[in-house]
Amino acid sequence: MAFTKAKIVMAGLAVTAVCIVAPQQLKAQVPEAQMDGVMGQSIEDETVYESKPDLDTLIEKNAPVFGNGTSLKKASSYSSAFLNASFTTAGDYTSATYYHKADYADDELVNGIDVSYWQADAALKKKYSKDKTKWTQTGLDWESIHGAGIDFAFVRVASRDTKDGSIYRDNCADSHIQGAVSNDINVGLYFFSQALNETEAREEAQYVLDMIDQYGWNVSMPIIMDREAGANKRLTAGKLSKTKETAVCQAFADTITAAGYRAGVYASYAWIKNYINTDALYDCSLWVARYNNTTTSNTKSGTPYADTAYDYEFWQYSSKGEVDGYTGVLDVNFWYKDTSEQITGLKASDGTSGIVNLSWDSVSAEDVDGYQVWRSDSDQGKYTLLKSTNDCSYTDTTAEGGKVYQYKVRCYWTIGGNAYYGTFSSPVSVITSLEKVAGIATQTRTETSLGLSWEETQGAVGYQIYQYSAASSQYEMAADVGDGSTSYTISGLTGANEYKFKIRAYEKNNDHVLLGQFSDVYSDVTLPGQVDLTNVSATGTSSVKLTWQTVDGITGYMIYRLDTADGKYKQVATVKSAQTLFYTDQKLAAGKTYKYKVCAYKTYKDKNYKGAYSTEKQVKIKKTEKPAKVKTIKLSTKDAAVTVQWSKVSGATGYQVYRLNTKTGKYTKIAAVKGTSYRNTKLKKGATYRYKVRAYKTVNKKNYYGAFSNTTAIKVK
Hints:
Blueprint: H1 55-62, H2 80-84, E1 86-90, E2 97-101, E3 108-115, H3 122-127, H4 142-147, E4 152-159, E5 168-169, H5 173-181, E6 186-193, H6 198-215, E7 223-227, H7 234-238, H8 242-258, E8 263-268, H9 269-275, E9 285-289, E10 314-321, E11 330-337, E12 347-348, E13 356-359, E14 370-377, E15 383-389, E16 393-396, E17 404-415, E18 418-421, E19 428-431, E20 441-445, E21 450-453, E22 462-469, E23 474-481, E24 487-490, E25 498-509, E26 512-518, E27 522-525, E28 533-538, E29 544-548, E30 556-563, E31 568-575, E32 582-585, E33 593-604, E34 607-610, E35 617-620, E36 633-638, E37 641-646, E38 654-661, E39 666-673, E40 677-680, E41 688-699, E42 702-705, E43 712-715
Parallel strand pairs: 3-4, 4-6, 6-7, 7-8, 8-9, 9-10
Antiparallel strand pairs: 1-2, 3-11, 4-5, 10-11, 12-13, 13-16, 14-15, 14-17, 17-18, 17-19, 20-21, 21-24, 22-23, 22-25, 25-26, 25-27, 28-29, 29-32, 30-31, 30-33, 33-34, 33-35, 36-37, 37-40, 38-39, 38-41, 41-42, 41-43
Helix pairs in contact: 6-8
């Protein structure tokens, strides 16, 4: 949320009523144990002031009102130098009027808070009053917080404020951060530091970075090292020199910035003044805590803001902010967001290629969210937003031919869900020529060529065809059609391959060639190569196996068989794998001749493209010959058994022996043997038995049977 800023004007105005008062200053007392927020618990020199009436209210009350309804601000105990060096804003979350250093008058003034586990859910705090590790849920209504104008929050994630100097994490941090981010509040982090040397400072910084990795937090603002005495006074007991304290702060900042984040240091005005050499800090923002209605003590005499000559980005001005969405009080802060960044080094191609390439210098601000590219053309005469990008370059492919375009670029930040913009660059102009080629289509297609056509481009004398090269990963010139023709055949291609093309028109001005914009990328595929059908053979009395050589780049194969009824080939199968090089055609008729051919196909953009058919091959399926009839069988008997013997049948796999069942009157199979004899035992002596035998032949796991022999009877002995 940006504030409305108004400077107090003093010089040259008649004084009709005088109200001399001291500046209003907030009284924020520190509780005996600890403040509601962790930050500021030890900056007592900045928190206890005299309580005075509100200066601006008294001035306005006693000032005359002019015809336009505006009252005149009168004299006060503030010096003219201070007022002229300041601008004011009303406190949204306190009753004070705040005076800001005039150096920040052009900055966006953004409202923020800082929180820790002290702002955990009240029920949890009450239930686990002695175990802060269980304070894991935020006690803030972040939607209402944002609705009240809070656009950023610093969240404490860990602390070293322990007697032994060990680090502990703030278990409410994740809940705070998720609530803030989900409500478009920008988040920064802070570590309550008690580091006494650079090693400990780097350890604290790495602890924060590890937590970011663990939780996947979206951190868009600085990661802060909070420097103050703390409850256990470890830092003050260390008695660091100003040089050493500055080095510790820099070590923390270096670790943070090396990880790609912004870094900063928080401390009271007195701490910064006495312990930090601000001129020696680099890549490190300053966050000053001064609970007053201004950051300077020089409001009555002396050079205003001379005591805060250093640049600070954030000002924690009160620990008693009342913000909708939280029942207690909060630390409230101003962010002086410098949005004066101006893009420099904007360059553009001449536009004669039909594509305008823009590039510019990156800005010094590390927290920009991106850049906006704006364009104006000679027809509209006004700038419109073309694109937002995170890069320092952009390619405009939407420009039309024969126009004058102007481009300008500015950076932007997203804070609290709102966009804040930097200063536009100086514009650059580009003249374009010729519309881009359209209507590209494929007219002819073979295994080694694609015949392309396209719509005529007004004013063109020729066209350049560019083909994508996988070897160079770029488009290369394939042909120059200089006769104005709108078709061309690209040859020398490989079967079943995708090819990508771009075409642009050109015209000639004297001897200078003016190139139009490239067409959109057009892609198509060549036909597959011809299949080499290597073998067609019968695999039984009802099936044929086809085999062929592989064809590169294809999707699969289509199998065709001649239909003798109408003399045409019809597709009987699709092999949906380029690696499968065979197919078995089944359920065929024995003794019949079949003819086949095969083609490869390529599926491209949901359409199948077939290559040339293989040469035709045919095969005749032989009829299966049944085994011959067993001619004669001989029977002999001994020991209540009958031996059946018969002559061998050529080609037989085996023989089946049948015996008459006198009860049913039917012959029943009693044995199947490979040889030419069988001994039937355990028979009844004196009984007569009748036998017959037939041969069988097994082909493809199927048995074919010959005729039975004549029956023969014998009486068992």
